[in-house]
């Protein structure tokens, strides 16, 4: 076994041919034991976030990966990537030349997992509910171009948009647009706890201890009707405290598949192929890491401080010392493989330079060293995060221009703190909602940005984002997208660091691993099966 598969960037449309030789999804998967999948994602209900799995609230890759198995959307990103295709819908499309009216016809015979019939009214209820609740996670911003939702009969849904939005079909493929049963979800209140009821390929049963899911069991939904072929009858997703514990479980055979987040050292070991019973699948990924700034905070309010950090940080050194071949430096919020990418930060700052950083601070009359604390989460993005911030700290402090401390916190306290504006500078990751440049810009820079950043640029919000969305041909949007990235490089409300690949490790009798994740890090459990590997 030991094989390592390199998947070319999905955006160039070459995914399916490259993957054909490794782990097909042709196994019937109709019987046998549940496939056990390990993750380090934590699913916790807290006072600040009591409804982690409500589609109107959930907005991180872990909770979305639960919802994508259980809650059906009108559209879905296809197996081989590319433009979204109908899922709960039989057909969808813009019905006007201005991309402001979008109509969908539902599939015949759709039912929720309890057998209740799905109608257009349920779709309207689900989307209007998420928009009305407007949870502090910021996920409802994905629906902010909707003006009204109209139904015609039981199977027609029409979305009237406030402004043209060529990315709208992608947004209908995200869990916030998931179809839920009004019987189970109150109109104006989030659903606390870990129950999920939808019409997706699986139903969910959660084993919970201390308000945290320790095992999520996904059972094939007999009422599911959509485009997906489900290659197994049951999957157990088991949450581990860290990558080391998850890796030991794979070695012992307690789990069949290991997903996010593996430690860099584990990936290096698996890449070497020392264990004949385990395979590593390497895939192109669109994950990015970045620093975010509270631009109202006195320490970083002057953009010269943020520019000096951009001038000093050595992305290549971070990648080399922490992640190796698993990542590459990123000089824009938009990854290099996405249409509309521009190396705006490199174009403005070039190579790291203490002299140039000092000149920026001197010109702005900033007293040095600038004292800062960089905050990071200890348990959400993997074991490399702490080391990454230690490298960042050393780079900034070695310049003599900064006096930086670093502080790590668990995700359950980190997120509420950053949303309440308690951090001046903090590190985050982004797994795209959909593979389009808009989704690396609008969520950070628009009025309802999910980070609650105080930074506002009227030209970005009022002109450039709307103009880019009017272009159905995304290449035609490049000039507006590039200008947004250039403004970000100058103002530095966010400082991109690197983009990473993604990996799945599995024991040799598991098939479908090559499609277990798509480029947006969507976990596709339905692809997994058992059989003789090919």
Strand content: 15-25%
Could you report the average pLDDT, rounded to the nearest whole number? Answer: 91
Q: Provide the low-confidence segments as ranges.
A: 1-31
Number of strands: 20
In one word, what is the shape?
globular
Rg, rounded, reads: 23 Å
Write up what this structure looks like:
With 534 residues, this protein is of the alpha+beta class. Helix content is 26%, strand content 23%. The protein has helices spanning 15-19, 61-70, 120-133, 168-171, 243-252, 264-272, 303-312, 315-323, 344-349, 354-363, 384-398, 411-419, 442-445, 458-469, 478-491, and strands at 4-6, 35-39, 75-76, 85-86, 89-94, 101-106, 146-152, 156-161, 202-209, 212-220, 234-239, 257-258, 278-293, 327-329, 370-377, 402-409, 425-430, 494-507, 510-511, 529-530. Strands 1, 2, 9, 10, 11, 12, 13, 14, 15, 16, 17 and 18 form a 12-stranded mixed beta sheet that branches. Strands 5-6-8-7 form a 4-stranded antiparallel beta sheet, with helices on one face. Helix 8 (315-323) packs antiparallel against helix 11 and helix 14 (458-469) runs antiparallel to helix 15 (478-491). The model is unreliable at 1-31 (pLDDT under 50). InterPro entries: Peptide/Ni-bd (IPR030678), SBP_5 (IPR039424), SBP_5_dom (IPR000914).
Features:
20 strands, transport, 26% helix, alpha+beta, disordered N terminus, 534 residues, twelve-stranded mixed β-sheet, four-stranded antiparallel β-sheet, globular
């Amino acid at each position: 076994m030991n094989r390592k598969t390199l998947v070319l960037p999905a955006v160039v449309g070459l995914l399916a041919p490259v993957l054909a030789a490794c782990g097909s999804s042709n196994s019937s998967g109709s019987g046998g034991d549940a496939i056990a999948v390990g993750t380090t994602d934590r699913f916790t209900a807290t006072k600040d976030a009591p409804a982690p799995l409500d589609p109107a609230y959930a907005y991180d890759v872990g909770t979305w990966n639960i919802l994508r198995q259980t809650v059906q959307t009108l559209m879905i990103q296809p197996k081989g990537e590319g433009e979204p295709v109908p899922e709960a819908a039989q057909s969808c499309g813009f019905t006007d030349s201005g991309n402001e009216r979008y109509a969908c016809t539902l599939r015949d015979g759709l039912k929720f997992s309890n057998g209740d019939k799905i109608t257009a009214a349920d779709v309207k209820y689900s989307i209007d509910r998420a928009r009305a609740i407007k949870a502090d996670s910021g996920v409802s911003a994905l629906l902010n171009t909707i003006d009204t939702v109209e139904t015609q009969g039981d199977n027609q849904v029409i979305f009237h948009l406030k402004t043209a939005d060529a990315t709208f079909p992608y947004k209908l493929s995200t869990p916030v647009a998931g179809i839920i049963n009004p019987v189970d979800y109150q109109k104006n209140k989030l659903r606390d706890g870990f129950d999920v009821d939808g019409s997706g390929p699986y139903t969910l049963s959660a084993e919970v201890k201390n308000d945290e899911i320790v095992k999520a069991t996904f059972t094939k939904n007999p009422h599911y009707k959509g485009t997906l072929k489900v290659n197994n009858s049951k999957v157990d997703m088991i949450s581990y405290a860290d990558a080391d514990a998850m890796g030991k479980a794979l070695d012992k055979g307690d789990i069949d598949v290991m997903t996010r987040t593996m430690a860099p050292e584990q990936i290096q070991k698996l890449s070497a192929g020392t264990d004949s019973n385990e395979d590593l699948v390497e895939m192109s990924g669109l994950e990015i890491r970045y620093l975010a700034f509270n631009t109202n905070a006195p320490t970083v309010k002057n953009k010269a401080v943020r520019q000096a950090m951009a001038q000093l940080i050595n992305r290549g050194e971070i990648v080399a010392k922490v992640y190796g071949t698993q990542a590459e430096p990123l000089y824009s919020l938009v990854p290099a493989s996405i249409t509309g990418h521009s190396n705006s930060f490199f174009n403005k700052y070039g190579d790291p330079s203490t002299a140039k950083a000092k000149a920026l601070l001197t010109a702005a009359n900033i007293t040095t060293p600038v004292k800062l604390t960089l905050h990071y989460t200890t348990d959400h993005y993997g074991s490399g995060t702490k080391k990454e911030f230690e490298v960042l700290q050393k780079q900034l402090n070695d310049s003599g221009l900064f006096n930086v401390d670093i502080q790590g916190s668990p995700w359950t306290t980190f997120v509420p703190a950053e949303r309440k504006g308690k951090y001046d500078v903090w590190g985050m990751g982004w797994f795209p909602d959909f593979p389009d440049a808009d989704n690396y810009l609008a969520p950070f820079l628009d009025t309802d940005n999910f980070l609650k950043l105080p930074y506002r640029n009227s030209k970005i919000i009022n002109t450039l984002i709307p103009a880019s969305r009017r272009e159905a041909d995304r290449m035609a949007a490049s000039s507006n997208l590039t200008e947004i990235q250039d403004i970000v490089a100058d103002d530095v409300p966010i400082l991109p660091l690197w983009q990473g690949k993604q990996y799945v490790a599995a024991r040799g009798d598991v098939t479908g691993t090559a499609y277990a994740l798509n480029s947006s890090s969507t976990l596709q459990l339905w692809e997994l099966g058992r059989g003789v590997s090919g």
